[in-house]
Amino acid sequence: MARVNIPSFTLNDGTKIPALGYGTWLGMDEKEDAGPSKPFSFEFSAEGMPKMMDALSYAIDIGYRHIDTAHLYRVEPEVGKIIDKKIKDGVVKREDLFITTKVWHHFHREADVEVSVRGSLRRLNLDYVDLVLMHWPMSISQDGVDEKIDYLETWRGFESVLSKGLAKSIGVSNFNVEQMKRLLANCKVPPSTNQVEINLNLGQKELVDYCQANNVLIVAYSPFGTMVPSRSAPNSPEPKLNNPTMVAIGKKYGKSVTQVTLRYLYQRGIVSIPKTVTPSRVVENASIFDFELDKGDMETLAKFDNGFRTVRPFFWQDYQNYPFEKIPDKMEIPESLRIWKNGLNLDID
Ligand code: NDP
């Protein structure tokens, strides 16, 4: 069986975090028959679940130790079952795993953070998570009401969860530079991480520089951006998988275009959490720690940055603390990002 050897970064609280993790967001499918008043809507993608469970199981077998999940993803029970089995089978010990989950918009009152984390622990069947993140800085009720809870209040709930040992580290996700500055200036415990979209299309230099200068580790979600077919549209920017510059760099090191991409992020001091349900890609994505991109290639790759966001939830853009630049488009919040009990798994509350 293949084996991968994934190094670690150290967080500002001294905890080690593997530099590459397994992402568990199965995505949402566009539903076309949503009715005349809703030209389209989204539902959680159920199809990938059995494949994801097999791929995650395989990932742990070959050496992955870091798993990224979230309450939102509706997969915590399944992720928990795989972890449980791997521990019982003696493949891995709990202390060797690094499990991240996230607190959704409905749980931003200080006291609700603990409610959310305890729910995740129950679903994951764990006593603690290694890292818990504030998924977004906005607070939105299940009815779509802007609750306008200051993320500084929410953060106090995170500090409390940390002090109770329910999480070993605490962090944020989707915070922009201004929000990071304000949080760092007004917290007792600084966030260990900021998980944001970073890929070749979206380099986020200012945010990465600020976080790194202040000892906050960056974790890159959607690390492939629009490179992979599931995300690329005819009008989405380069590089795609067949981009000649990327192909040439890959050839030079005997690596694939996706491996070059993940290696580029690692050399910028960034953790990546690519998602794949394909076993060969599970191996491929983690086989990036045996080569080094030279300075010229790092500079060439940096030039693809054009500020293009793959994840742009503009249906939240009028809510307080929406972190990204606004665009003219309008859209209702998809029901499945709002109403909790229509997930794939009835155990999700
Ligand atoms: P990714 O950039 O990981 O892309 C996933 C897609 O890439 C899938 O279609 C997958 O296909 C394909 N793929 C994976 N590896 C390869 C490869 N080697 N070659 C070709 N194609 C490949 O995007 P995600 O948006 O899923 O982000 C990763 C993770 O980040 C999520 O799973 C989630 O854990 C986290 N996340 C966090 C967010 C936040 O707000 N904090 C937002 C979005 C994501 P296939 O599976 O069919 O192999």
TrEMBL record:
Positions of the catalytic residues: Y73 (proton donor)
Keywords for this protein: Oxidoreductase
Keyword NADP: no
Keyword Oxidoreductase: yes
Pfam family, one: Aldo_ket_red
GO MF annotation terms: oxidoreductase activity, acting on the CH-OH group of donors, NAD or NADP as acceptor
SUPFAM superfamilies registered for this protein in UniProt: NAD(P)-linked oxidoreductase
Site residues, Lowers pKa of active site Tyr: K102
UniProt-annotated binding residues for substrate: H135
Domain NADP-dependent oxidoreductase: 51-304
Name of this chain's protein: Aldo-keto reductase AKR2E4-like isoform X1
Species of origin: Spodoptera litura (Asian cotton leafworm)
Gene transcribed to yield this protein: LOC111362542
